[in-house]
From TrEMBL:
BP GO terms, sorted: single-species biofilm formation
Alphabetized CDD domains for the sequence: GT2_RfbC_Mx_like, GT_2_like_c
Record-linked PANTHER family: GLYCOSYLTRANSFERASE, GLYCOSYLTRANSFERASE 2-LIKE DOMAIN-CONTAINING PROTEIN
Classification lineage: Bacteria, Pseudomonadati, Pseudomonadota, Alphaproteobacteria, Hyphomicrobiales
Classification via Gene3D superfamilies: Spore Coat Polysaccharide Biosynthesis Protein SpsA, Chain A
Pfam families: Glycos_transf_2
Keyword Transmembrane helix: no
SUPFAM superfamilies for the chain: Nucleotide-diphospho-sugar transferases
Name of protein: Glycosyl transferase
Transferase listed as a keyword: yes
Residue span(s) of domain Glycosyltransferase 2-like: 178-303, 436-614
A GO term for molecular function: transferase activity
Superkingdom classification of source: Bacteria
Keyword terms, alphabetized: Transferase
């Protein structure tokens, strides 16, 4: 069965599958090992058809399965190619109804404790809990290890190669891609392997533009001359004197004739499908200016390790580090317009180029390909430019960001951040805008006293207003504390008794506040350092920014909040949960400010004008859970960015005052809020742009399994 990018829809309304346990199996023959498919159940609801994503399990080479209970009222199943891929070719699609007895028996063999819990909850009438535990018990043991992942999801079979070759043969408008390679004294064996990897590309419309930077090893020019004779697509120019990597790359760029240039080091390796994936993306979106991919490393024996699965375009993260790195492909005219690479930035010359390109880039014309298309050699003695100029890279990176700040006329400063990454320290406007801190609370004077003391005595910021929204405190200590703090001219206390509704309480507090900046803050937050509020406010005032979040840690120092990843656990979850205080996170992500899809409402700052424009918190359908995620998604939909910064660090005693979802009423409310998020943001929850689709979503641990 062949289907286009809109995918496949199977009508099942008359098959009686609603509420039944079924297994679904299918295979996508059009993408082989690299297939990414979304399986969705369509249910008719009061607001029209709604889609619920089913978390299919991928086994590699295009094979998928799903096992679970279909939602009541299901009318259709849809299969959609993800990430803008070409149409699906589905084979062996089966839906098999499973008997409960057989499922319980299978689950008991795999996970007896979970199965026993499922049977218990069913016996006491808690069907949703029972179904959830049974579904977890039925999940077979997962694959482990990067080597295993490579075999299943990143290894071309002969049928994959034949499919790609046949597809490319039908293209009549494939772009010419110029691979530019500066060369200086690499080991002949690794240079030979690098050249061989380009010549082995399944996409044939490339040219390899090489600048020999006056190599002193006579084997290098001989090898390059032979390669140019053997393949007319290889063009070589030997420089008269050594000019280092930026000058040599510019010489290679001068040979380029393609509309796009791909940057490659002289000892690295491209997988055979690398340029095919790039060309496919360009054919799909001819206006693209920049394309980049995931990457990994190879050692002296060619073993692959340390994969870097990246997120989509993230200019805030790019200020701190060159997370794009390899493989990066740029429209040649754009590289020429900014003057190519700049001598004097050796070690960070690529980062400098990307920062200068970012001045001109339209985010809609940048595309991340979540496929490993570059193998970066790390063998000692390979003669790489990064080895030779490593100690200069940090200073060059700082200077590249300093020049960006100067070009854009910003009043900010640049300093060395953790682990040597850049840190952009923004300047506050003069005078500093008032920050109105909205704190919903009830009882728990011990917690409220700590957060108020932190705000009023331990925070360095010139204009703070605190609006405490009291949700009907009855404890004498809390009432006494509220009366005491109300005498402070900086504090206002609003009385809002009734059922707990975080959204409603926060909206009321915001309405009573007078500042242009609103900070929604839980009553169980403790201030750790004086400059945290300045950091958040200096980001929040930027016109392109819609919301700002902070780094929240538990009292023992483990991380509670490092930004939110959509789709984790079904709706959303915290990034890097429970990592230690000295853990920098995945490729340094927890020590660098970056764009994220959402931040927690436990500490969320935004301009009042943005808060009002996007409709405030949803007090009707998201009273307690996910209101912050919903608000941030509306902020992003309106065109603003959401920034998480590790440089505003606080301690969070999470949910101590609100309690857990431990009553039937709370559980019913929570399930309704989950349903609201799924209906409202289904596609977004499935595809967080800042979390790679290859990574597991049970928790946002940035791991494969």
């Amino acid at each position: 069965m062949e289907f286009g990018v809109e995918g496949l829809r199977l009508d099942v309304a008359d098959l009686g599958l609603g509420g039944r346990w079924v297994s679904i199996a299918f295979k996508d023959e059009n993408h082989g090992a690299f297939s990414r498919v979304e399986l969705t159940a369509i249910v008719d609801g009061p607001e029209g058809p709604q889609g619920t994503s089913l978390s299919e399990r991928a086994f590699g080479h295009g094979r998928f399965t799903w096992l679970g209970r279909l939602p009541a009222g299901i009318t259709a199943l849809t299969l959609t190619p993800m990430l803008g891929e070409a149409g699906l070719s589905i084979a062996a699609f089966t839906v098999t109804v499973q008997s409960r007895a057989a499922l319980v028996g299978r689950a008991a063999l795999r996970r007896p404790v979970l199965t026993a819990q499922a049977l218990f909850w069913r016996a006491v009438g808690k069907r949703v809990r029972s179904q959830h535990r049974l579904a977890r018990a039925l999940v077979p043991p997962g694959l482990t290890g990067y080597d295993t992942w490579v075999r299943h999801f990143d290894s071309l079979s002969e049928s994959d190669r034949a499919r790609i070759t046949a597809e490319v043969a039908q293209w009549h408008d494939g772009p010419l891609i110029s691979v530019v390679m500066p060369v200086y004294n690499p080991g002949p064996a690794v240079l030979e392997e690098a050249l061989r990897s380009v010549r082995a590309q399944l996409y044939p419309h490339w040219e390899l533009c090489i600048a020999d930077d006056a190599s002193t090893d006579p084997a290098v020019p001989r090898l390059l001359a032979r390669a140019a004779v053997e393949d007319p697509r290889i063009r070589v120019e030997r420089r008269a004197e050594n000019g280092h990597i930026a000058a040599a790359t510019n010489t290679a760029l001068g040979l380029a004739r393609g509309a796009y240039v791909a940057f490659m080091d002289h000892d690295d390796v491209l997988p055979p499908h690398a340029l095919y994936e790039v060309a496919k993306a360009i054919r799909r979106e001819p206006d693209l200016d920049l394309i980049y991919s995931d990457e990994d490393k190879i050692d002296a024996e060619g073993r692959r390790f340390e994969p870097h699965f990246k997120g989509d375009w993230n200019p805030e993260l790019l200020y701190g580090q060159n997370y794009l790195n390899h493989l990066t492909v740029v429209r040649r005219s754009l590289v020429e317009a900014v003057g190519g690479l700049r001598p004097g930035f050796e070690g960070s010359q690529d980062h400098d180029l990307l920062l200068r390109l970012s001045d001109r880039l339209d985010p809609a014309r940048v595309r991340h390909l979540p496929v490993i298309l570059y193998h970066w050699r790390t063998a000692i003695g390979s003669g790489t430019f990064s080895d030779a100029f490593l100690e200069r890279a940090e200073a060059a990176r700082l200077r590249a960001l300093e020049e960006l700040v100067a070009r854009r006329g910003w009043p900010h400063r640049v300093e060395r951040g953790p682990l040597g990454f850049n840190r952009l320290v923004r300047a506050l406007p003069e005078p500093a805008p008032r920050v109105s801190v909205v704190i919903p609370t009830k009882d728990r004077a011990d917690l409220l006293r700590v957060v108020l003391d932190g705000l009023l005595s331990k925070t360095v910021y010139p204009d703070i207003e605190v609006v405490v929204v009291d949700n009907g405190s009855t404890e004498p200590a809390a009432q006494a504390l509220l009366a005491q703090v109300a005498t402070d001219a900086r504090v206002r206390v609003l009385s809002r008794p009734g059922p707990f509704n975080f959204s409603g309480l926060s909206n009321d507090g915001a309405a009573a506040a007078t500042g242009p900046l609103l900070l929604f803050l839980n009553n169980d937050i403790a201030v750790r350092e004086p400059g945290w509020l300045t950091e958040m406010a200096s980001i929040a005032v930027e016109p392109r920014v819609g919301a700002v979040g902070a780094k929240l840690s538990y009292p023992d120092g483990t991380l509670q909040h490092g930004g939110v990843v959509l789709g984790v656990g079904g709706v959303a979850g915290h990034s890097h949960p429970d990592i230690g205080p000295d853990d920098p996170g995945y490729f340094g992500r927890m020590v660098i400010a970056q764009e994220v899809s959402a931040v927690t409402g436990a500490c969320l700052m935004m301009r009042r004008e943005v808060f009002e424009a996007v409709g405030r918190f949803d007090a009707e359908r998201l009273a307690v859970a996910f209101n912050d995620i919903d608000l941030c998604l509306r902020v992003r939909k309106a065109g603003y960015s959401v920034i998480w910064t590790p440089h505003a660090a606080l301690t969070h005693h999470e949910s101590k005052s609100r309690g857990k979802e431990d009553t039937p009423e709370k559980r019913a409310r929570f399930e309704a809020e989950v349903a609201t998020m799924t209906e409202r943001w289904g596609p977004e929850l499935r595809n967080d742009p800042y979390y790679n689709p290859n990574l597991a979503r049970a928790k946002a641990l940035f791991r494969l399994w």
